[in-house]
Amino acid sequence: MDQQPYAPPATAVLYTADGHPLYATPPQTAPLTLHRPAPHPVRDAGPVHTIDPTSIYLPAPATEPARDVWPARLLAGGIGLGAAGVGLGFFLQALAAATTGLGLLAAVLALVWLLKNGSSSGGGRGGAVNVQVNVTNRNR
Fold it and tell me: What is the mean pLDDT of the chain?
């Protein structure tokens, strides 16, 4: 592949003393005109038939009443019910996972609260304490 950008071929141009260019090719003897190709001959496509569009899309009249395809309806209903059951199963599974996650989060938060605010030995923050002391001297 050529990596050089396209450069038009350089033409040798000579200039006269007053600055007019002298080209190596002879000047045009006639003015330039636009190229207009000859028109293509029109081919005869034959006679054009007009078709009424409504006649194409009308259904064919039924000569006898159609059979009731109850097996197909039962199969379609069964597939629909099965798909609905699978979808409901996925929904309930996602709901159970979400509630389990929320329950675990609530349990962790309750444990953190109990460890922070619960009663602890010492510190004096446990509230009022009732103490009853009975002293008896048996050596008297």
Answer: 77
